Amino acid sequence: MRVTKEELKQLIKNKLHKAGLTESHADTAADVLVFADARGIHSHGSMRVEYYSERIAKGGINTNPNFQFEKTGPCSGVFHADGGNGLVAAKEAMKEAIAIAKENGVAIVGVENMSHSGAISYFTEQAADEDLVALSVTLSDPMVVPFGGSEPYYGTNPIAFAAPSSDGRKITLDMATTVQAWGKILYARSKNESIPDSWAVDANGNPTTDPHKVNALLPISGPKGYGLMMMVDVLSGILLGLPFGNKVTSMYNDLTEYRKLGQLHIVINPSYFTDLNQFKQNITQTMADLNNIKPAPGFSKVLYPGQNNDEVIEKYEKDGIDIVDDIYEYLVSDVVHNNKYDNKDPFAE
Length: 349
Ligand code: NAI
Known about the structure:
Elements: E1 2-3, H1 5-19, H2 23-38, H3 49-57, E2 68-73, E3 76-80, H4 86-104, E4 106-114, H5 121-128, E5 133-138, E6 159-164, E7 170-175, H6 182-190, E8 200-201, E9 216-217, H7 223-236, E10 261-268, H8 276-291, H9 307-319, E11 321-322, H10 325-332
Parallel strand pairs: 3-4
Antiparallel strand pairs: 1-11, 2-3, 4-10, 5-6, 5-10, 6-7, 8-9
Helix pairs in contact: 1-2, 1-3, 2-4, 4-5
């Protein structure tokens, strides 16, 4: 099914509002989810609405949180999300980080006690839109075997980065520290497609191509991805005094409880380090240099990080956003949720 950005946002907003979010939180949450679908990150777009709606309806997301920003130093602060929606809390916290970085050159802002925050490049691009460079990391529920291990310990702990160029584009990296994000497994399930055997293992620790048999994911590049997961866990969990490692709450375990997740935004104001215009021109130059690298056999072009998503944005602007029919039918229906996710199984649909 193809839909316009505006229609998709309205449908998601209606559903989240009906589930219990305030109109304003539903609007922001819908914006973050459409951001993902609009650039082809379907694993973190409208596909998640029914899960969020069920969690909201069952009380596992605070619909009236007392958001508070505590400035803890000239360049630091903690955003207390009070069990509120992570998509909204992470955006509000980034606004605080942007204000500090504009004034003091750098900002490090933690978000504590929030729910899942979706495709986290939304927040780094929020800063890049203000001529700032940003990094963001967040906790995710334990579903990854550490290098050499047979039981899950860390989450898919993603890392996002964005920097502004001189022509309005941004160079963006947004990646789970697993070979693939869990949402990609869910997306493969929703489309009944198999997955490559390098993504995940089954209950016996053997590689699997069946998304329904996945019991744990694999880190990128063995011990290196495993080390990055550790880093994300320290920065967005231990640093903020939150549950960490395999104590991070599961996405599907108990939909009546707040999740207590954390996120850390690091924002750098380039003008405190170099000439801003030169910085932006050099980012544009980097993008052009990368595009001009001679492609390897089997490749038509070298893309800059994030360019694959930029190309999808252009395509969807012309043709409409492609979303799975079942998801569209759910979005246009009167149903808030189908009681599908609260099944105590950390690897639920
Ligand atoms: P991915 O593997 O699709 O892409 C990773 C990065 O590689 C992206 O920056 C992408 O632009 C870049 N890339 C892909 N193909 C490229 C190419 N041909 N040339 C140059 N660059 C290319 O992303 P992944 O790891 O599957 O993550 C998907 C989403 O899941 C992200 O938005 C992430 O934030 C989100 N996520 C969120 C979590 C949460 O708890 N909030 C947990 C895990 C992931």
